[in-house]
Every structure is written in structure tokens, then in C-alpha cells.
Write a structure and sequence with these properties.
The protein has 196 residues and is an alpha/beta fold. Helix content is 41%, strand content 14%. Strands 1, 2, 3, 4, 5 and 6 form a six-stranded mixed beta sheet that branches. A hairpin with an 8-residue loop joins strand 4 and strand 5. The termini are far apart. About 5% of the residues have low confidence.
Length: 196
């Protein structure tokens, strides 16, 4: 097959990430058995494999040597970093060698609660601090993570509203000033004509 290139978000995950995150599997499996296997989103599959059959195909990532076997395709999701956009994603099993290294910028742990999760967050943070040799930035509910992801967009939208309101105000003030000047000139012209 011809070599195709596309940009995709690479997400480091645990082996059984699809069921943990509640992702619907479209083809193959949502379980990563080794670090040489990947699961891709439908958007990635459509861009790379035109025949629609991604299972058993190989793809390469810039950070890896050799091909990675595609074992599953999951439905498209919207990442918390990019609300409102469905981007191509590649799910790769996190290894102990790249935990805390340059290869992983951030990791999300999703814990589902039958009741209020507030009591779980402090225990989850202590458990992560004791097991993972990473600086845990925080443990938050998904709703709060979504709010944090949307907040910069809200601030940008508010800044644009202020900018356009200011531009509109300056435009209206300029139009009124020009109208007032035109009336003043016309009044002077009438006065001169009457005086003659």
C-alpha cells in the first residue's frame, strides 16, 4: 500500500483503556497487549487506510522505531484539550520506560464513581504519589477538567466581544461627528447665501 502521512494526537494509555474510558470499539479490540500495538480512532483510520480495513496494518510514529500493529479502531472522541473538535488519535500503551520522560507530556487517570467522587480524589492522589514517580499536578472531576479546557476559549471570545464593541463605538462616534460637521458646514453655507 502507498505510504500516507497524517497528524494525530498520540495518547499514552493503560492496556484496557477502552473499557475504562467507555470508548466504543468500531473494529478489532480496545485492549493493548504490548507496546508494539496501537488502537486508532476512526478519523485516523479514514485518513491512513482508504479501504477501511485498519486491523493488522502497521503505522509508524516519530517517537518509535519500526512499525506498530493496529489492533483496534475506536469511535471518534473529543479531547479535553480541544473541545468541539474531533481530531485523529492514536492510543499507545504507556511503558514504564517513557513514564516521566520526554515522550509523555501528560497523563489522565479516569475513575468512575457510583456516588460523589470528592472522597475518592484525595485517596487517588495519595495512591498515585506513592506508585508513580511523577509529580501529580492534581486530581479533578472530569467536569472541572472540561471547564478548565473551555475557559481559555471563553476568555478569547470575551476579548473579541470587547474589541468589536470598541470598534463599533468608535465607528458610531466617527459617523456622528461627520454628520455634525456636515450639518455645521451646510448651516454656514445657508447663512452666507442669505447674507448676500
Amino acid at each position: 500500500t502507498a505510504h500516507r502521512r497524517t497528524q494525530a494526537v498520540v495518547v499514552e494509555v493503560s492496556g484496557d483503556f477502552a473499557s475504562a474510558l467507555g470508548l466504543a470499539v468500531a473494529q478489532g479490540t480496545g485492549v493493548l497487549g504490548s507496546e508494539r500495538e496501537v488502537v486508532i480512532s476512526e478519523a485516523t483510520s479514514r485518513r491512513l487506510f482508504l479501504d477501511g480495513n485498519a486491523i493488522g496494518q502497521y503505522l509508524r510514529l516519530p517517537s518509535t522505531k519500526g512499525g506498530l500493529s493496529v489492533v483496534g479502531v475506536v469511535r471518534n472522541t473529543v479531547p479535553l484539550d480541544s473541545p468541539g473538535q474531533s481530531v485523529p488519535q492514536v492510543y499507545r500503551r504507556a511503558s514504564t520506560t517513557n513514564l516521566g520522560g520526554v515522550a509523555m507530556e501528560r497523563a489522565y487517570v479516569v475513575a468512575r464513581c457510583a456516588t460523589e467522587c470528592a472522597a475518592l480524589t484525595s485517596r487517588l492522589r495519595m495512591a498515585l504519589d506513592s506508585v508513580v514517580a511523577l509529580a501529580v499536578q492534581g486530581v479533578w472531576p472530569v467536569s472541572e477538567l472540561r471547564e478548565r479546557a473551555v475557559e481559555p476559549l471563553r476568555r478569547t471570545a470575551a476579548a473579541w466581544v470587547v474589541y468589536f464593541t470598541l470598534c463599533l463605538s468608535v465607528g458610531i462616534a466617527s459617523a456622528l461627528t461627520l454628520a455634525q460637521l456636515a450639518v455645521a458646514l451646510r448651516t454656514r453655507e445657508i447663512a452666507v447665501r442669505v447674507a448676500l
